[in-house]
């Protein structure tokens, strides 16, 4: 006689009976548009939204600190008396550390307590970011070392935080929360430019600009300890995922604009810090506005066309990148004629690039089960930066230095050499768009494969004879403690 089916048990904050939080079944039900109507969250909605607010605040600070360096880069270059390539190497060292450590934290995040990993990484970030402001003129190598260590904290956070949001929400609510989280990236980046340049100008010392974010980060660390959920998860396997590269284009263009104005006689060259902060203010504001508009528009397009076009997400990313290529090209060459026209092209280029921020993250979460999400996020981050901004700042700087050495040094030729070196950026955008077009051919089948995988799994039943939670690997079967629980 077949057992009578009863209602699905609610999840609990503990590890008792019933469908466990973050189970295999949850991962697929969260893919459906009406999932939030069918499922009840593991913790209260209020706590979930508070947790997202904390995660977004820290993410905002992460990117604000990262681009504070870009906001005061002319001051740093003047202070240490370094070339374009050495100045760009500061960002390259940071990104290299970031991408190398991301897989490590992805591995740890799928096996150990993610909240504590984020707290430990954030603590390292606060100490090393503040320490960067104490470096003296004769210790440029120490600044490089500290910037590399800042990557430890950012790697731990950027890898794990999106997976927690993916666990707390399902369906369209998850898409909305992920969009909000990733909107903090361009907003934080823009604020980094503005805050860095503003503080350096007010204090007359670029090092004070590097101290603001760590101070605010202490608040974020306390909030993370008190308010962020504490999920743990079992063993993970390497997932299939979609990736694209990131470029150093925004900070390079801001530097190009400053050189363009010196070349045209609109500004005097910076020979003593603090340098003129006007470009950082404008560029930061443009980054904030275009980032918010682009991420919001990308998320809305995904919702509007999602039911009619199953593979619309990678198509949005592809169209955004390919469409940005001509805008990037015109940005580079308009700088020699009109600064105003340059900012117009920058606006549209950055907005089109920003279409993929939230959509790309949602693609990843929609094809990867929760117990593999930290590893997936880590792999995406590593490949993304490895193919993008890990080497691109230094590479562009080397090209610029090589071109500049071919003729006598003048302010105009310094601008032209950087201008010519940036021509590679539009071509990179086109290549990234082509990869997303290829992804659109497979994304629907990947999602169906995940759904079929779960449909064949036994559903947990309520009662004494209920089935144990569905496990994902032989290691899980040998270790039932891999079940997930949430503690607040």
Question: Would you give an account of this structure?
Answer:
The protein is mainly α. It contains 20 helices and 2 strands. It has helices at 24-29, 35-38, 45-71, 73-80, 84-109, 114-131, 140-168, 171-203, 209-227, 249-263, 278-306, 312-334, 339-353, 356-367, 373-386, 392-404, 411-421, 424-440, 443-455, 474-478; strands spanning 230-231, 486-487. The protein has a two-stranded antiparallel ribbon with strand order 1-2. Helix 7 (140-168) runs antiparallel to helix 15 and helix 11 runs parallel beside helix 13 (339-353). It is globular. The two termini are 42 Å apart. The relative contact order is 0.17. Mean pLDDT is 76; it is low at 1-39, 232-248 and 459-488.
Strand order of the largest sheet: 1-2
Order of helices and strands: HHHHHHHHHEHHHHHHHHHHHE
Compute the number of strand runs: 2
Radius of gyration: 24 Å
Based on the model shown, name its key terms:
disordered C terminus, 20 helices, 488 residues
Draw up the topology in text.
Layout: H1 24-29, H2 35-38, H3 45-71, H4 73-80, H5 84-109, H6 114-131, H7 140-168, H8 171-203, H9 209-227, E1 230-231, H10 249-263, H11 278-306, H12 312-334, H13 339-353, H14 356-367, H15 373-386, H16 392-404, H17 411-421, H18 424-440, H19 443-455, H20 474-478, E2 486-487
Antiparallel strand pairs: 1-2
